[in-house]
Design a protein that fits this description.
Blueprint: H1 22-30, H2 34-46, H3 50-63
Helix pairs in contact: 2-3
């Protein structure tokens, strides 16, 4: 197999079986605390924290993709 050959990936072995996706692990870790995290970020944004406001805006856009950016 030649590098760059059409139809083949650069990693033919792929991820080994049994290896968990990092995103799934992160979701499981923060899932139970998501409401508290969102409330904290919103309180900071309302107090004038621009980084927290940007995080809230990004979350809103993820939840409402039809809204204008």
């Amino acid at each position: 197999m030649e590098v760059g050959q059409k139809g083949f990936t650069g990693n033919p072995a792929g991820r080994p079986k049994g290896i968990k996706d990092r995103r799934s692990s992160l979701r499981a870790l923060i899932g139970p605390h998501l409401i508290a995290i969102a409330n904290t970020q919103l309180a900071k944004a309302l107090a004038g924290d621009s980084a927290a406001a940007a995080a809230c805006a990004a979350l809103y856009r993820c939840e409402n993709p039809q809204q204008p950016q």
